[in-house]
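Review box. Two proteins, two foldings.
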Amino acid sequence: MIWARRSVIGGLIGALAGCSPAALLNTTVSRKGFTLEADIPYGANPRQKLDFYRPETPRPDGKAVIFFYGGSWDSGAKSDYLFVAQALAARGIAAIVADYRLYPEVRFPAFIEDGALAVRWAADKVGTNKLFLMGHSAGAQIALMLAVNTPYLAAAGVDRMKLRGVIGLSGPYAILPLTSRKLQDIFGGPSRPETQPITFAKAPLPPALFVHGTGDTIVKAANSERLAAAWRTAGAPVELKLYPDVDHVDVVGAFSDLLRARAPTLADVTAYIDSH
């Protein structure tokens, strides 16, 4: 099973967004609408690096997003998701895209812990109360494991309840039992509830937006529906956007100019950021 196509998604759309990912490495790049500071370390491991996109015209409120990409917890690269960061920066929203350690180098919960360290960097940079967590597919699982009632962010020195909000795009939040041998190896068995955001979706919870396509055959929309219901039960603010007939890839691909018409993801995400 694949939780977001591998770097093909980001690499193709990133190139179409107007910049070669390879050209962005180990440098500061100014482009129309943003300045990119690439490969900033947030830890000692080579995978513990992030890219910071500073808008040319930032919002007066200073709101920012840290984004975690998908890739089945075993693939992906931050430079492939230029198209997400560029779309946000063009609207004045500072964007941080973080790499994290991958399987088979690590297993759960190492990539969640990496996410917490990256959030700590982002919170120190822009302020916790101005920061949204956002992820797609496996990256949404990481973002939500940080936002729900778990100790990961507290261990990194971040108060998750001071976050502006969390945005989950097509995330696997409630997928037990795991039938894939690879996923069982990543998560330490077929039925470990401590690996699932739904287990920890208990008060208190920060505001959340869940986006999912009903045509998603890779991660079923029921994942977002169930987590949104748990948010409501906990008495926490939540919005759920279901896109008829939209698939797994198009939910995130719609951040790009080329695929913008496939889904209203960018409009809904920016509207959510505007209102929170």
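Next protein.
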Amino acid sequence: MGERRDITLTVNGASVSRDVEVRWTLVDFLRHELELTGTHVGCEHGVCGACTVLIDGRSARSCLMLAVQADGHEVTTVEGLSPAEGLSPLQQAFVDNHGLQCGYCTPGILCTLTEFLETNPDPSEEEIRIALSGNLCRCTGYQGIVDAALAYARSNKGSAE
């Protein structure tokens, strides 16, 4: 057993305190300790984006971050993006625009787009593709994902006016 440390963080709006091994990655902590399995482990090198979560509202690769580094921070996983009554508007846009297939990359893409669309509410297709450049999807070819992000942005623009 390795060195351990007490950490306290907010995960999907709830305060969480645990004694963790200092070598645990955040993705392993989320999946194995908190049983939040929506965050996926892909390459374990920060390349594929499957493990992307939001840390204090900013997207981050949870495979590259130690759980102890999240101490005192707010973590939002894909589970935290969904309202209790169903899908978020962005998730619904994915359903409506065929933005997912196997779904393995989808949680990381949703977290990436959540941050991106908050800072850029009226993006071009090119800007969306650039924002998604750190998320690998082997199933879709990205067009449905881009269409979903554009549809979400258009619907939010209409509701803001």
